Structures are given as structure tokens and as C-alpha cells.
Amino acid sequence: MKKAVLLVIAAAMLLGFSACRATKKIQQVIVKKDTVAVVDTPVLKVPTHEDTVRMANDVLANVEKKYISFNTFSAKIKVDYSNSKGRQPDFVANVRMLKDSVIWISLSNDIGIEGIRVLITKDSIKMLDKLANTYQVRPLSHIQELAQIPFTFSDLQNILVGNPIFFSKDSITSYSNSSNGYSILSYTTLFKNLLTIAADYSVTKSKLDDNDPTLNRTCDLIYNDYESKTGMFFSTQRQITISQRNKLEVQLRFKDYKFNEELTYPFSVPKKFKRI
Question: For residues 97 and 30, what is the distance between their CA atoms, to the nearest angstrom?
């Protein structure tokens, strides 16, 4: 379960944003019949790159108003996933976070038996395997190695609460809008990051495409069932699909979540546990 679960955790921490792009050029020529008079053709202003960036940033400014700011966060998440071998046993992840300090994760089966406990800080990952009586300590870069993506600690926190990552305002290349919302494309060092944003400025869909064609990585993420019962605009249903050589699909259902309550992060290693 260890590597599979860590991969799922890393996969669940991939957030980008996808959308459909639409560009239209409209030209109209009006010629009056039976006359030699020349009628001027309306000239439509073609948006410049500066216009595109300005409109995109106006949208993003409204998206940022819905970013989740927190001191602590806790959630109970039902996780279903499948990989190249088919559907795997689902599990429950209990997550607790102290902003910029600790991410605590407990993984259990459906009847509540805890199998894995993880403690992530800014510089390390510690994991207890309660079924094998082992524990291990790895640098934070271990998640980066699993996912092959340079996550920072802040990225991991933002992913879990649903804030977008890997999007650069400084590298916007296209923008479009419709009655349903907006789409904005950004190029970062690693990814093409395409955002789909609803008319109410909530992020609804995501797509990250690797800039390195030899890796051929892509990640799609869908955010559903937003609610704001806690005062935070929060997506309670998320679907993640990661494709490279193999395909991994993850569904996250947030059964319960709370912000800014006092939390504990218990993590002690029993004497009988063997370090690996």
C-alpha cells in the first residue's frame, strides 16, 4: 500500500487548470447594390497582447478573491482510485494542516483501521506503516521524486484546500470568454497551464501539459460541488486524471472539513517499529 498511497497523495496534489480556447475573427463587407458608391468596411480592433493580459488579469483578480486563506484546516476525504491494474481498494484520508508548518495525514480503510500515518513539514516527510510496523523519514523532495514535479510545501497546502498552483500571471499567452465563463492559458517553466473559470469566478476545470515532449505528462482536474457553508468557497468533489506511461484516476469526496479550529498532530514512533 505504501508506494501506491504516496503516489495517490502526490497525484491528488496536482492542480492546474484546463479550458477550451475559442478565438473568432469577424469581418463584414457591405456593398450597396446598383451603385458605384464605395461603402467603408467596418474595421474591428484586434486585441493586442497587452489587451489580452489586461482582460485576463481582471478575471484573475476576481478569482483571487475566492482564494482560501486559513490558519488551520482539517478534512475527512473518501479516496477512490484506479491505475493500470484497474480499480484499487478505496480508503479514507483524514487531513490536518497548520499553515506553513505541518501537514498531517492518516489513511484508513472503510471500517476505520488506520494503516498509514504521514507527517509533512517544510523539510521532511515522516511515515508510519502501522500494518508492517515500520517507519521512514524522507526529505520533502521525496514527493517531488514520486510525482516528478517540484512541489513546495506551500503548493501542497494550496492543493489540499483547492487553491490553484503552477499558474503564472507573467506568462499569459491567451484569453477567451463566453456566457459560461473564461479560459486563460499560461506557460510556466514546466507546464502549459490552461484554466477554466466559471462566470462566478470559481475554477472548474484544469489541465497541465508538460513542456518536455519526452515526458509527455498531462494532468486533468475537475472541481465540482462548491459550497460556502464555512465562509470559504470550497470544492467538495474533485476528480484527477494523470497520464504519462500509465493512467491514474483519483476521486476525492470531502465528507467533512473545517477551518481555523484548534488541532493536534500526533506522531510518535513505537519502539517496536523498524526504520527503513
Answer: 63
